[in-house]
Amino acid sequence: MRTKILLLFLLGWVGMVSAQIKTKVFELNLGKPSKNALTATDSSNKLVIKTNQLLSFDLKNANPYKYKYVINHRFVDLYEGQGYNPLDSIGKVVPMKNVTTQNSETKINASIKDLESELKTLKSLKINSTIKQKGIDSLEKKITELHLELLLFQQKKQHNSLSEFSTNFIKGKETANEEEDKANIKNATKVLQKSFNDLKVNVDTYIAEISAEDFLEKDAFDFKRKTFNTSYISLLSASQNIGNEAENFPETSEYFSKKLKSIDSISVKIKNEISKMYQLKLYNYLLPIDINGKNIDVVEVTLERYDKSITNPIPDKYTYNIWINGGLKIDISGGVFLTSLMDKEYETKDDTGNNKFIYTKEKGDYDFGFGSMINLSLRGGSWVRPALSIGALFTTNQKFQILTGFGLILGKEERLVLHGGLTMGAVSRISDQYKTNGETSYDLGTEGTVATNNKFSFGHFFGITYNFGKVKKQEPAK
C-alpha cells in the first residue's frame, strides 16, 4: 500500500514538474556592438522560440540620460516609482565631548578609593604576620601608582578641546585654547563647503559625460552612484558634527549658519541627482508574451530610441523577428506542375479495305498545368523545412487532377515550395478491344475514329509553387 502511494506521489510530482511553463528571454545589450549583443537564456544561436514557451525581451545598458526608449509601442519605465533618499542612510549625529577623558579620571579615583578602603580594613585586623604586612605593602604600592597616574593625567589635561571633529576633518593639530577651537571650526566649515562644491562638480561632470554616450554600462554606473552616495553621506555626517561643535561658541555658530545656507542649496541638488541615479532601474524588460495557439510565424519586437536633446526627434527604430518553432502551419501556394497523368492520342495507317493499324502518338512522358497546393508543415523558423501537400491542377487539356505528396519549403518570408508525389484523375485511354502494336488492323468504319474511354488513373507529378500569403506576424501592441 505504501509503495503504491509513493509511486502515485512520484508520478504526480513528475507531472507537475513537466507541466511548468517555461519563459525564453532574449537579452539585448544596447552597449557597443559585439557578437553577444543579442543572446537567449538557453544559449541558442537563433531568434527562435517554441510555441509552448512564453517570450520575454530584456534590455541591458540602456541610457535614459540621453534617450527615451519605447519597446513594442509601450513605454519602458526606466525609473522606479519610489525615490531613494540619501538622508535615509544617516541620522542625527551628536558628538560626545570628552567622555573618554571624564570616564578615565572617574575610574582612577574610584580605584584609589576602593584600594584605600581595603588597606584600612587590612590594617584594622588584630594580627601580626608576614602575610598581613605583604598585603599592606602591595596595596600601598598600587595606591601610590594610581596617584601618580592621576597626577600625570591631570597634568596632561591642560585644555578640553571643543573642536575635536573639526580638527580631525581638516587634519589639524590639537588645540591648546578656545581661540584655536574657533579657528579650526571655521576652517572646517570652509573645507566642508568646498567639498560639497567639488562633489557637485563631479556629479554634474559624470552626468554630462554619460548623457553624451549611446549606452550606459551597468557595472560602471552602479560603482559611480555608490561612490557618489558614500561621499555625500560622509559630508552630511561631517556637516552635522561641525555644526554641533560650532554651537559651542556664538561667533562660530553664526558663521556656520551663514555658510550652511549655501551648503544646503548645493546639497539639495546633489541629493536630487543621486536620488535619480538610484531610481534608475538597471534591468528593463518586456513582460512575457503568450504565443501558444496563435496562427503566426513570427513575433515582431520593435525598439524605438528617441534622442532627448532634440525637439520632436525622429526615432531610431530597430526590429527583431522572433520566429516560432513547433506546432502546425498551413500555407497556400500556387504554381506550375509536370504530371505523368495525361490523355493519350492515337493515329492510324491504312490497311486493306477499311481496316487500319492503330498507333500511339508520341507526346512525351509529361504534361504540364497550373494549380495550387495546401502545405501542412511544422513551424521551425528555418530556411528549409519539409511539408505534406495536397492540391489540384488543370492541365493544358483542361483536365482536373488531384495532387498529394511531399513538399520542401525554401525561405522564411518569401517562400518557394518544391513538390513531388501522387496525382490522380480521369484520362482518355483506347478501348480495351483495340491494340496499338501495329500488328493488328481494325475496321474503324468510314470515319476511321479510334474509340476511347475515360478512366480514373494514377501517376506522379513534380511542381514548383510560390507562397502568395505574407508571413503572419504578431504585431507590436498599439
What this model shows, in words?
By secondary structure, the protein is of the alpha+beta class. Helix content is 35%, strand content 31%. A hairpin with a 5-residue loop joins strand 13 and strand 14. The protein is elongated and about 175 Å long. Mean pLDDT is 78; it is low at 14-18, 73-81 and 90-102.
Features:
478 residues, alpha+beta, six-stranded mixed sheet
Order of helices and strands: HEEEEEEHHHHHHEEEEEEEEEEEEE
- Number of discrete helical segments: 7
Please report the distance between the alpha carbons of the first and last residues. 58 Å
Helix content: 25-40%
Please tell me what the overall shape is: elongated
Largest sheet: 6 strands, mixed
Number of strands: 19
Low-confidence stretches: 14-18, 73-81, 90-102
What's the pLDDT, averaged over the residues?
Answer: 78
- The structural class is alpha+beta
Layout of secondary structure:
Elements lengths: L1 H17 L4 E7 L8 E3 L7 E3 L3 E7 L6 E5 L2 E2 L23 H26 L5 H27 L7 H6 L8 H34 L6 H29 L3 H30 L4 E7 L7 E10 L8 E10 L2 E12 L6 E5 L4 E6 L6 E12 L5 E12 L4 E11 L5 E15 L10 E3 L8 E16 L5 E2 L4
Parallel strand pairs: 1-4, 3-9, 8-19
Antiparallel strand pairs: 1-2, 4-7, 5-6, 5-8, 8-9, 10-13, 10-18, 11-12, 12-17, 13-14, 14-15, 15-16, 16-18
Helix pairs in contact: 2-3, 5-6, 5-7, 6-7
Concise synopsis of the structure shown:
The protein has 478 residues and is α+β, with helices and mostly antiparallel strands.
